Amino acid sequence: MEAFIQRVTLKHRINAFMRLIRFNNLLIIGLTQYMIKICLIDEPNRLWANFTDIHLFMLVSSTILIAAAGYIINDYYDIKIDTINKPGRIVISKYLRRRAALAINFGLNLLALSLAWMLSIGVFLVTFISGFLLWWYSNQLKRLPLVGNAMIALLTALSVLVMAVYYPQNQDLLVIFAIFAFFITLVRELVKDMEDVQGDAHFGCQTLPIVWGIRRTKNVIYVFLGIFIVILLSTYLSFPRKFAFYLYLVVLPPLLLFSVRLFRADTRKEFAFLSNLCKWIMVLGVLSMGLV
Fold it and tell me: What is the pTM of this model?
């Protein structure tokens, strides 16, 4: 393995590192926070000012860096499990030495905390708690039924709420979008557990599909989906009509498609499709901010 690592080209290392830190997911995080600032916090005539706002750039960078560090430490602890669940996507020990992965994780955490400290003590505390929870999740919580799923959902919601910590405007709107982020992430994490049930069971993880089985886990997902859809429908009473209609016409149909496909899903391929569908629903939710 050491000899293989030495022969890997720079291009392969870069591509592998982008997979390791989930570059596409980090882009979604950055897009979400910029959309929050532009659409939910600022006045419409300040659109372009946000792209030169150094404080916003520091806040978004801090969130992205702490998330990237979380992805690295998660893969570090999951090397053995991933040899079964995702053998073609392993990066640590194949393209990157384990000690190097830990060093990069430490550096990203330190840089994220430094940026957060320069912004405010509140942002620093949220960033520090997020980094600690990401490590705790990777080391222990992800192997527990529902607890690990809820933790990742909470961390996703925190990436929205940290904006409310630094910017006091329209905090009620940010809380609503944080709730959306929490529920759709929770659903996606449970689907991913069903997708990875073989490898998780082999290494003694106690995820919900292992403890309760696939069928009962689907029932739990339907409960969370029901709560999420009720919250979605309630937007008609509290938000502009065009925003509510967007959610009904653009976000609700994929949720209904998800519900139908979930009922019939029983293979890794089908669960992977549902996981990606959740990600697209999250993107559609982010785009809806432009109508608030």
Answer: 0.83
